[in-house]
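Notes, Module 5: Reading structure tokens.

Key idea: the token line is not a picture. It is a compressed description, and you learn to read it the same way you learned to read a sequence, by spotting repeated patterns. We will look at two proteins. The first is printed below with its tokens.
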Amino acid sequence: MSRTITVTIKGEVDDDRYADLANAIWLVAYNTGLEFTVTPDQEAEPSRLNEAWRNYGEVSW
């Protein structure tokens, strides 16, 4: 059986914050151990989402 969760962002959100949110949702879902997909909206650029993910590895904590 498949289940769906929909997240709707109200108001304006720039591409960087959108990518951060989409990647955070992916990370939380990944850590559940369940099979899942995260489907960005039609305005999102997958390459930008991937770029944001790569940049997280460059952050100095």
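Here is the second protein, with the sequence above and the tokens below, as before.
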Amino acid sequence: MEDQAWRSVEVVRNKQGEPHVLQQKVTVYTAGVTEESSGYTKPEVQHRLVPLRSLVEFDGG
């Protein structure tokens, strides 16, 4: 069985200095013949840049 997920690769800042997370799409194989092969991930070529603020909750205090 296969599933899609995003893996965070690096935190970078845009021209305004705002932190963003570079993420890479991976294919996750959840059912394997053995326990070792279960959960294997295969990197894909698709990437995205996501604002850090949208991924974490800041405690304003």
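Summary for the second protein:
- Residues 7-54 form one domain.
- The chain has a mean pLDDT of 83.
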